[in-house]
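This part of the workshop introduces the protein records we will be handling. To make this concrete, we reproduce a full record directly below.
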Amino acid sequence: MKKIFIALTLLVSVTFATTVAFNGLKVTLNSDGLKVGDNAPAFTATTINFEETVIGGKKDKIQVLAFVPSLDTNTCELETIAFNKKIENMDNIHFSIISKDLPFAQKNFCGNHGIKNVQTVSDYKNTNNAKRYGTTISAPVFLEGFFGRVVYIIDTKGKIAYVQVVQEIADEPDYAAIMRAIRSIDRHVKPE
């Protein structure tokens, strides 16, 4: 009976999960994630100063949530630096890079790379936060708990307006597509 239960659990988790790759190796995220039009759940993360901050939900600015495996990898470093530069003059955007890195490591990273325009936040306290966004790696075991490379854009009503799941975690996201989506959403934002 136990074997049947385990088999059913694996079948259900694979059925409702997204598959990507890491250097060609099959990687499973914990779910299909959120879709355009879904509510973006608010959650609490930790800033580089060990303060709690609310990410997601309804806010007065467009939010971009970029989930990354670790700032201590080349691709995540390049991505964070690139987004920091790309949104430099965009006052209407609240951009968060979310990883499991501890806040003091994120603070060192930001200081060493001049990161001032994006907020790096840590989800080291509560793994259920990212699971609601479908970004947590559930297999293979050696990557379990890290994040896939996923970008969400949330409009000012707290709805998912754009999703990009990077199919090869070792690759950078499609910056041009993300910036086009931000500009498109920004044009349609009406003050409340």
Observations:
- The mean pLDDT is 88.
